TrEMBL record:
GO terms for molecular function: G protein activity; GTP binding. SUPFAM superfamilies: P-loop containing nucleoside triphosphate hydrolases. The keyword Ribonucleoprotein does not apply. It catalyses: GTP + H2O = GDP + phosphate + H(+). Belongs to the small GTPase superfamily. Rab family. It comes from the Eukaryota. This is small monomeric GTPase. InterPro entries: P-loop_NTPase (IPR027417), Rab33A/B (IPR041822), Small_GTP-bd (IPR005225), Small_GTPase (IPR001806).
Amino acid sequence: MKVENLSSSHVTDSDKTSKVDEKDAPANASPKVTVIEKQTQRRIFKIIVIGDSNVGKTCLTYRFCSGKFPDKTEATIGVDFRERTIDVDNEQIKLQLWDTAGQERFRKSMVQHYYRNVHAVVFVYDVTKVSSFESMPGWIEECDRHNLNKEIPRILVGNKCDMSNRVAVNTNMAQKFADSHNMPLFETSAKDDEKANHVEAIFMTLAHKLKNSKPMMSPYMSTRGRDLSNVQVVKVGKTAQGLGIEENPDNKCAC
Ligand SMILES: Nc1nc2c(ncn2[C@@H]2O[C@H](COP(=O)(O)OP(=O)(O)OP(=O)(O)O)[C@@H](O)[C@H]2O)c(=O)[nH]1
Ligand SMILES: [Mg+2]
């Protein structure tokens, strides 16, 4: 298990600052104490990114969280964990992206962790690889097997559109599939800098949906005990223990 950048973290999802102001107090009076308390709570939404190995899940999440295409990637083991805080209609919300492993051998011991307290799902296929699109029903079945709420936002993303001369998955076919499963389709490229805004728009669309949705479980409770705002990637290998992600087992709302 490899955990990066977690050691100095502490909770700031609820920030509290206090200020004691004595300068106006008369000399013969007990000091006038003004306490300014500021409490902010930031909602955190867990989004899982799933699909076959090599479709570009790591590159897409990296593009959104770091603003660039990674120099090199290796097959994800377990899950890579990225976050970005964004402003949606004057509310700061945190998107916590779970970049899951596509290879069965690297995911099997983690699967139940992926599907716990999920707020949204991004299904990714590679537009140049038909088999990755044909796997989509299998990924949807896996969500159903893990009792994922059917109401949570889901989106379908066809990646690697920059390879226009190798596109093998027809847009109409993909759109029909997306329509039949009640989700929007986006075709994009994590690699093409000109499509960077597009990747941004995909996750922003999701963020707007999440902001306006009434999640089944509290988005305040997803990461208790850690401020992960500066964490780029946490590799958790084959176990979630020690990750610092504490689920909300009772699904109690903290609002
Ligand atoms: N041309 C092109 N290549 C891409 C794009 N996105 C990813 N790739 C390449 O596809 C390969 C796999 O990308 P990853 O992001 O590691 O794939 P993954 O889905 O995370 O794979 P697993 O971790 O094994 O599940 C890498 O060689 C990337 O450079 C894209 O938009 N265009
Ligand atoms: Mg990966």
